[in-house]
Amino acid sequence: MNLAFKDIRFNLLRFLLTALGVAFLMMSSMGMVGLYRGIVADALLIIERIGADQWVVQGGRQGPFSEGSAISSTLDRRVEGIAGVASARRFVQFSQQFTLHGRQLRASVTGLDFPKDPGRWIPIVRGRLLASGHYEAVADMSIGLRLGETVHLGQDDYTVVGLTRGMVDTGGDGLLFVTVNDAVAIAQRRTSEEVLLARAGAGPAAASRSSVPQDSKIAAVLVTLNPAVDPEMVRRAVSSWGDVNVLSRAEQENLLLNQRLWRLRVQILAFTGVLLVVTGIVVSLIIYMLTMENLHEIAMLKLIGADNSVIIVMIAQQAFLIGASGLGFGLMLSRLVFPFFPRKVLILPGDVALLGIAVAVICAFASLLGISRALKVRAQEVLS
């Protein structure tokens, strides 16, 4: 006869409510870890999908995902001249806020070096990829644009020809893909007043020019290497120019994870640790209260000659059943709730396994409190 199951069956509602409370704590812990995993996945999305072996960025800078980078819009031609380079594509990305039908929308405009890069690495769920060098866009569904809709960006109108899902930047803004030339035109838009003021500030000589000087909006050149070439040879050749910096894909990922996101990672781990401590305290109090409620039955067991090991196993089994049920309910709640969150929450099997180990350790320590109280009960107390 399993005394733990007998006791749970006798007080089933109390056990279910207790497991549900632990489940919410488990769901919160999984949500914190899953949120971090989702942010990391979003941050690495472009780096992993775009398929570049090296990133050529502004000299002395660490690339568009760590700090501002502006290079010449013709740098890709220089890079293509290096032996071992299979292709070089221009890249630009910036946030843009715009109005559509009275709604304020926000997107991360990402330039594709069309036609060299038509965006075959982009997962299209509806519509098609870019087929024209101008005035077409592929939008993520999180932006709120519909297929065939026209959006005014800069001085021009762009037609949404394709939709993606789950393509966002580090900040959670949906990606809006246009050609590099269109992206530069959108970024360099200035009002007439700005142009007039810039000409007036530059003096009479500048007033005759048709436009004001503009900084380059190209953030990086994406380099794809031939399979047999030594990456270090290409890096040394590009670095010798002096005005640019070269980063590998692994270096870009390292910059994102260990510099830009490390504070977020430490903070989330700290919150997760606090939640696990709270879970341990709650489970310990629950087991202690269950033991206190069963003191009469424990004294009766001792009176009829039950060994201490029977009582220890009963309390330990109850603690682990509460922990396991809480973890299971928490996982089910996570599957139901997290898809409706505005940011991606990734629940990985490895994280669930680690959380399961943490719950097992917490339940083991929590049961010690109840066991220590149960062992102090004397058989004579059954008469009290």
UniProtKB/TrEMBL annotation:
Membrane topology value: Multi-pass membrane protein
Transmembrane segment boundaries: 12-36, 268-290, 310-333, 345-371
Domain of life of the source: Bacteria
Limits of the MacB-like periplasmic core domain: 16-238
The keyword Transport is annotated on this UniProt entry: yes
Keyword Kinase: no
ABC3 transporter permease C-terminal domain sequence ranges: 270-376
InterPro entries linked to this entry: ABC-4/HrtB_transporter, ABC3_permease_C, MacB_PCD
Pfam families xrefs: FtsX, MacB_PCD
Cellular component terms per the entry's GO annotation: plasma membrane
Annotated localization: Cell membrane
Assigned keywords, A-Z: Cell membrane, Membrane, Transmembrane, Transmembrane helix, Transport
Name by which UniProt lists this protein: ABC transporter permease
